[in-house]
Design goal:
2 domains; 9-stranded mixed β-sheet; two-stranded antiparallel ribbon; 7 helices
C-alpha cells in the first residue's frame, strides 16, 4: 500500500524529544521524508553513534532533481554525531577528462570542521562493469571513516591467517638492516585490512529485487561490516540519504536502532517494503 494511504505514526511528544531522551524503540526503523539538512537541524546535539551513507556525489545520477548541499550536510552531521561517534562516507569521483577528486575535497572539509580522518578505506567492486579505453578499469570507491574525537567503539573484523603456530620471526631490526629473529606465535586470525571487496549487482549487493528501483545501491555486506565495526547493539545509526534502506536493514538486523531520511517519498517506500520483508517495523514520524 502506498505511503499516501498509510497513517503517519508518531510517539508521544516530538520526534526530536524522543531522540534526545533515548526513547526510540528497538528493532524499529524511523523513516523521515524531507531534506536531511532541515530534518537534522531539529535534532539535539551529540545523539548519533554511527552514520553510514553514500551521498549523490558529482551529479552522476538523477535523484528527482535533488540538489546536494554538501557543506550543510557535513556541518549537521558533525553537530548530531556523539563524542566518539563515527561517520562512514562512501563516495567516488566523476571520471570525465580526469578524476574530479570530489571525494578528497569532501574529506578535507570534514576535517576542517572538526572530524578526524580516522581511516581512509577502499570499497573494491569485484565485478565492476565500468571500463576505460585509456586507463585501468575503475573498480573502487573511497570509504572515509570520520570520527568525532577518538572512536568510542571498534570491533575489529577478523580473517584467517595463512600460516599459524610458532616460528622464528623478525624482531628489533636496527639501522644496520640486519634482521634479528626470535620465536613467536602466528595467530589463527588477524584483523582485516582496510581494503574491502564486495560483489555488486543482484545477489551480490542484495537479493532484494525491489532495492534496484533505486539508481544506486551499495552492498548490504558493506553496511553490515561497518555497523559491526563502529557500533554496538542498541546504538543509534543514521543514514541521512537512505535511498533504498540498505544501512537501515542491516542496522536493525544487528539490533541497532535506525533513523533514515530521504527527500523522495518513493525511495522511503522502497525502504519500507524491504524492512517489512525482513520483519522490521517502520514508523514515519513527523520531521
Amino acid at each position: 500500500m502506498p505511503l499516501a494511504d498509510q497513517p503517519v505514526k508518531t510517539r508521544k511528544g516530538t520526534f526530536s524529544e524522543s531522540i534526545a531522551s533515548n526513547k526510540l524503540e528497538e528493532r524499529t526503523a524511523y523513516l523521515v521524508i524531507g531534506n536531511c539538512v532541515d530534518v537534522m537541524r531539529t535534532w539535539p546535539d551529540n545523539v548519533i553513534q554511527l552514520t553510514v551513507t553514500s551521498p549523490p556525489y558529482d551529479s552522476l545520477r538523477d535523484y528527482n532533481g535533488y540538489e546536494f548541499p554538501f557543506e550543510d550536510i557535513a556541518d549537521q552531521l558533525y553537530r548530531v554525531t556523539a563524542e566518539g561517534g563515527v561517520v562512514v562516507w562512501v563516495v567516488g569521483d566523476r571520471i570525465n577528462g580526469g578524476r574530479s577528486l570530489t571525494s578528497f575535497r569532501q574529506a578535507l572539509y570534514f576535517q576542517s570542521i572538526g572530524f578526524s580522518a580516522h581511516d581512509v578505506m577502499i570499497y573494491q567492486k569485484k565485478n565492476t562493469p565500468f571500463m576505460r579505453s585509456n586507463a585501468y578499469t575503475n573498480a573502487y570507491e573511497m570509504m572515509f571513516v570520520l570520527s568525532k574525537g577518538k572512536p568510542t567503539t571498534f570491533n575489529p573484523l577478523k580473517e584467517p591467517t595463512q600460516r599459524q603456530g610458532y616460528e622464528m620471526l623478525p624482531h628489533n631490526k636496527l639501522p644496520d638492516g640486519i634482521n634479528k629473529k626470535k620465536l613467536g606465535e602466528l595467530k589463527k586470525e588477524k584483523t582485516r585490512t582496510n581494503i574491502w571487496s564486495y560483489a555488486v549487482g543482484l545477489g551480490g549487493t542484495t537479493k532484494d529485487k525491489i532495492a534496484f528501483q533505486h539508481p544506486a545501491v551499495f552492498p548490504e555486506k558493506l553496511a553490515n561490516d561497518h555497523i559491526e565495526s563502529w557500533s554496538n547493539p542498541g546504538d543509534l545509526v543514521l543514514d541521512p540519504m537512505c535511498g533504498s534502506g540498505t544501512t537501515g536493514k542491516m542496522a536493525l538486523l544487528n539490533d541497532r536502532r535506525f533513523i533514515g531520511i530521504d527527500i523522495a517519498t518513493e525511495y522511503i517506500e522502497i525502504a519500507r517494503q524491504r524492512f517489512r520483508e525482513s520483519g522490521i517495523d517502520a514508523l514515519l514520524p513527523a520531521s
